[in-house]
């Protein structure tokens, strides 16, 4: 920090020396009463300043021999406050000066424009014109030369006449000095300034180009874009007040109005982009509200420049410079605070900021003082240019290194996901066999009641394990924001009671008492998923038991309301270093085998259900509070079962004989799945892998192919692809394919559909789901389009149009009795979603409509409401370009369909 202070002091001192040197050079020699004595030929450019003769509202004859005026005025200076003329900037007049240089010598003149209409004469000869001066605004035309002209040499003494009219600027008169000297001296000085100016512009533009190239490569990084545009804007502004190199391709005389607009707009843009660059680099240190206020002011100023004449908007200079100084001070203070905290980037930027602050302040102080047409702020911005460039370069290097690390992490994450997916698949395969065998045993009437009870325990344990396997994938989807919540009515009081019973032995082992407060038997219904609720509560209670310590007590309190609140309190306190990051991933405290994922995943599951999980800790202990949305409204009564579909047994009895090839590398899955298919009408042949399946199909072409996705020798995808190719080549009857997999992601379903599968079922596959899929395929046309997409896997037709009218069977649905309490609320939620779709369509919020339709598609399809799911998918795909009346008509049709649905609840022991 001391080094930063020393460097800042050095920069300020250097700037002060430059100012003093400029001021000193501007004071010698001085003209008196219209005469400037030059005893010797100058060896450097001489500023012709001091008292010039002044004639108000008069264009004197430039061929004068004796000084033609009685009045005098300081030069350079605006005439707004000159004695002997009315106050104000508008008007016209003449300035005259006699330069008594050595007899026999000759001098040239560098004719600098006066920011208005002017015409310069030397010894009666016109040498430069900037527009056309006149006695009125109509007779005057202001312009700027595209370069500063240097005249030929004139013999001494010199008699200069400058005719000026001003109706287009806030400062009228002789505001910029004219320079004299030998032509070679003026040319060398001009060349030096051109080289310096060109180097400065090159630095601006090259730095800006590098920043813009970096943005083109990494468009997600906006700061380089803003900084690159800042470099372009400040380059334009610097050139407009300097050597005007950008005007060289244009005519000699450039319109004053266009030139002034470019100068002011580039100045305002540079200030805005300057602030946005700092805001992008330091979003925490620089408040957004202050930036918005400044940008709004600069935006209004830009509109004034575009809409008003220069005579009006040129008054923006002083307040604009004042605003820039104030903003620079505020930003410098923010950078200073950040630098004190050890931020190296802030220290680097602070040096550039101090340079800008100093030069802007100097420009403000010297805005109307005599001097050449130059700004110290250009030097300050040049110094500033280096500081953000260094900061951006540092961050670019860090970003590239981070990308390398990110790629490695992504590869590790993909590897982890593959391992987890394989693990889930390997777990689901035996689970499918266990659950299928348990279901078959449960349907066996020969089992004794105690045996039936044991089979029920086995089935519930298998389902519980399956839920936990699926939950691991759910957490990943919650992290990535792709989790599709399936809300239902959950009695949170019952969930808490079950958790406390399950964890009672664990608490006794740790010597901790569990106190259940508010154990009133009345249900406390929340809107969520039971498995997620159980997982959250179990996590909170288990962590509280571990944190409480032997002999302590954990209090669990449930409070009804909206939202419902559940608090778990233990007497232990969370250390401050852990409390600040309590819900972050991999943060753990005193537990020896802790992974730091418990509270992180608990809050993920809470937020996935539109709830929240908070922690409060202190001397009185630690309390974690879970809030979940209460279930609103009473559940409707189940619909009448009088309009149910025909019983499954009737359909099976009427079905002709069907040959089925069942392919799975797990022998138990083959056994259980084959037992699910009644004989007759199904005759099942099995194969253990895709190669064996191909050989079996060559021997005998089946009606149905049921196969696993992942198998040795030849995968299910490759097997289906081969079967479709063989089917087409030999002209065989269309094969109906059902692919089964433990992978429950969209990508797996898409792969199956692209290979040629007609249905994709996620393991474990129940008897009801399998028979329902077979029944749907029986209703399909015999020929399957070769280009059917993956969405056809979940629809009754390979290519459902989405606007087809529902048939009678579409408005009848059979649901297992175990869903009887959940389905009415599910249906009501879908109706509410469709109502929200109608509102979004009417308001033109098509992105919202697409999102709601996508969510409805997944939920309706999962419950077997196929026509409604197809309509939702059509609305999702057509949300962007379908005419609004058609969108609203489709939404209304979907809502009416959901109102007409008739539901039958199938008994749990039914085989239909």
From TrEMBL:
Q: Where is this region: Disordered?
A: 786-809
Q: How does it sit in the membrane?
A: Multi-pass membrane protein
Where in or outside the cell it occurs: the entry states: Cell inner membrane
InterPro entries assigned: 7TMR_DISM_rcpt_extracell_dom1 (IPR011623), CheY-like_superfamily (IPR011006), HATPase_C_sf (IPR036890), HATPase_dom (IPR003594), His_kinase_dom (IPR005467), HisK_dim/P_dom (IPR003661), HisK_dim/P_sf (IPR036097), HPT_dom_sf (IPR036641)
Q: 4-aspartylphosphate occurs at which residues?
A: 708
Q: Which UniProt keywords apply?
A: ATP-binding, Cell inner membrane, Cell membrane, Kinase, Membrane, Nucleotide-binding, Phosphoprotein, Signal, Transferase, Transmembrane, Transmembrane helix, Two-component regulatory system
- List Phosphohistidine occurrences by residue: 854
Q: Which reaction does it catalyse?
A: ATP + protein L-histidine = ADP + protein N-phospho-L-histidine
Instruction: List each copy of the Response regulatory domain by range.
Output: 659-778
* EC nos: 2.7.13.3
Tell me where the transmembrane regions lie. Answer: 198-217, 224-242, 262-281, 293-312, 318-336, 348-367
Q: What is its main location?
A: membrane
- Enzyme class comes to transferase
Q: Which residues form the HPt domain?
A: 815-908
Under SUPFAM superfamilies, the record lists: ATPase domain of HSP90 chaperone/DNA topoisomerase II/histidine kinase (SSF55874), CheY-like (SSF52172), Histidine-containing phosphotransfer domain, HPT domain (SSF47226), Homodimeric domain of signal transducing histidine kinase (SSF47384)
What the entry lists under PROSITE patterns is as follows:
HIS_KIN, HPT, RESPONSE_REGULATORY
Q: What is this protein called?
A: histidine kinase
Instruction: Give the species.
Output: Ramlibacter alkalitolerans
